[in-house]
Design goal:
The chain is α/β, with parallel strands linked by helices. About 35% of the residues lie in helices and about 20% in strands. Helix 7 crosses helix 11.
Length: about 300
């Protein structure tokens, strides 16, 4: 996803000289094409993410369209006050980009595991929160954010994510994307955990279960219309996220369902059960350890049914 993001941003920056990219002293192997082709639109703020965000806010308030870039929790939780006070409060045109959402940097320990970021950013007014599931969604999210006026958060994977969509027609902030039709069960997911959902679908199909599947590249504003429609037509909605189940994507879906006057479906949230990871390992290993891998997702759905 990160290569797709940078490639797309280079194209956009060549067309719009107001686009700026600010990094917290990392990503040079990935960002090299940007600073080589758009050197006057690139700033290295150093290992000082709070200052990076303040600088981005200042740039935005004089007319620039600024993307900040760092890994894991560094561009988000480390500088949540600057995002809140300097960016969102002023509706500043700052797009906070996290590379490595969830367990991508799992081998570096919990300090690098971004598992509360969606909740933190979703709670702040005036912020759009996006988490694409594949390379096509990542490109579309980058393009739409370059046109969006205001503060936003873009949560990306790292690299090697599979391509789900051939193309997406009329991509919009706040709209879920149907991947396949099904019956009785619907699976909603956000972010790169979708690769586990696709593997879980195959396991479920072998058991005679054929779920409807949607990806939600937008966590905020949530697609209320789709949630309400599906909640009235299936028995079970399952949300999947590489994130704490408290206040994240599953909670956003639960909030919509809780306010429905009538609904058919019950809700099952699959994510981290309100805990920090005390284990260290790669992303696949940690997904298995914390029950958000394909096998665990399929088993939880079968049990719920």
């Amino acid at each position: 996803m990160r290569d797709t993001f940078v490639k797309t941003l280079v194209q956009l920056a060549k067309e719009d000289k107001n686009i700026e990219l600010v990094t917290g002293d990392l990503g040079f192997g990935v960002l090299k094409p940007f600073w080589e082709q758009c050197p006057d639109q690139f700033t290295n703020a150093g290992i000082a993410e709070q200052n990076m965000t303040g600088v981005a806010a200042g740039m935005a308030l004089i007319g620039k369209n600024v993307f900040t870039y760092s890994i894991g929790n560094f561009p988000t939780l480390r500088c949540i006050e600057q995002i809140r006070n300097d960016c969102a409060y002023h509706n500043a045109n700052v797009k906070v980009v996290c590379i490595g959402g969830g367990f991508v940097y799992g081998s570096l320990g919990m300090s690098h595991q971004a598992t509360e970021d969606l909740a933190m950013l979703r709670a702040l007014p005036n912020i759009v929160v996006l988490a694409p599931a594949d390379l096509v969604e990542a490109e579309e999210c980058t393009r739409v954010l370059a046109k969006y006026k205001g503060t936003a958060y873009l949560r990306l994977g790292r690299g090697g994510e599979k391509r789900i969509h051939e193309k997406i027609e009329n991509f919009q902030i706040g709209k879920a994307i149907k991947v396949c039709d099904g019956e009785k069960v619907a699976i909603f997911s956000t972010g790169a955990i979708f690769e586990e959902v696709t593997a879980a679908k195959k396991m479920l199909n072998e058991k005679g279960i054929n779920p409807i599947i949607y990806t939600f590249p937008t966590v905020k504003p949530i697609d209320k219309e789709t949630i309400e429609k599906i909640a009235n037509g299936v028995d079970l909605i399952v949300t999947c996220e590489e994130h704490n189940i408290i206040a994240g994507f599953g909670s956003a879906v639960a909030e919509v369902m809780a306010e429905m006057k009538n609904k058919k479906a019950i809700l099952l949230r699959v994510g981290l059960n309100d805990e920090y990871s005390i284990r260290v390992g790669n992303q696949k290993y940690l997904r298995t350890q914390y029950g958000i891998d394909a096998k665990s997702i399929a088993e939880k759905i079968i049990e719920a049914i």
